[in-house]
Amino acid sequence: RELHIVSVCTLQGASEDTPPKKEKLEKGNENYQKVKEILERLNKMCSTGVWKKQQRLLKNMGAHKVMLDLLQVSYDQSDLKMLEIIKYTHLFLQKFCTGNRENQVLLHKNLNLFLNPGLLEAETVQHIFSNNYQLCSEISESVLQHFIHCLATHGRHVQYLNFLHTIIKAEGKYVKKCQDMIMTELTNSGEDVVVFYNDKASFNVMLDLMAESREGVGESSPLRYHISLVELLAACAEGKNVYTEIKCTSLLPLEDVVRVVTHEDCITEVKVAYVNFVNHCYVDTEVEMKEIYTSNHIWKLFEDFTVDMARVCNQREKRLTDPILEKYIINVVFDTIHSFFSSPFSENSTSLQVRPSMLSAAKHHSVVLNIYNAVFCKGRQKLGLKVYLRWG
User: Fold this and answer.
1) Residue 35: pLDDT band with limits 50, 70, 90
2) pTM, whole model, 2 decimals?
3) Which of 90, 160, 304, 376 has the fewest CB atoms found within 10 Å of its own CB?
4) Where are the domains of the chain?
């Protein structure tokens, strides 16, 4: 019955009949309120503990068809009430297909409805493809180009990058086709889309952005976009993809990464993205990236790792915690250390012979040993640190 009401209200909104202005306004307000309340209830249905059953029920009722019709109603972009209805409609469709391949396929049949510059649309498309290997592997080049074009012409919005990130990996498998296509499109897009802070002037801008983000990086901050971009590039190289690895290293040289990460004003969120990039584009790679094994860059990073490990140890001694810093150490730093020392390319590395003497300092050993013996350090992480201590 409620879906029928939404359908009737939708048809009335699209009607060409023109009733008296006052009557039309009152009727419109009444319809808006009815539809909003129904959409709120439908959204709650998909948020309950039995949401899988609710998704199936709503599919059988044809709820998604009503919502797709609602998205096609023409309206004034300044109509705040209608904009709210559209927002609820997208939220419903996103919940409707979350973790449900059948429902994802149903919405995918109407994909063109969502291929416009809207950010809500980008988020809905992301949900349609999320963790669905078949849909991701069959995606057309034109869909990718649409989002790259949106980045270039409608602003550097993280939502566009989030979609691109989503289609790189699904059901635990890398989608090499998507990695290659995204990398090609990004490298062809130019500075409007691929924003780095390589030169002196822009590097100072990045330092200012990090200073503004000490308490957290805002969603609309240019720094949030940059972090998401670096994360996307690293994801394109995951799973040992030779083509994307080489492209990534040409876009973001190791020297530039080290300059950012080791700067005293570098915030942890940036370190997470940059060091993860180093791991997937320079260390855990299909082909040898000689620079990482023939220069001191990696040891400068290791020195910075030690400083951050010491911070974690000091905070724990004072019964203080920094979840972001600890997550960085556990998930990113330890993985990078393990990847470097377990890489077959590191065995004959000249940099192992010319590493800075600081790495053999007692303080260095003490810090790493404290982390090694920490409660939160386990398995693969301990293995990497054990080898690290041996080389130190």
Assistant:
1) confident
2) 0.86
3) 376
4) 1-109, 129-192, 195-287, 290-392
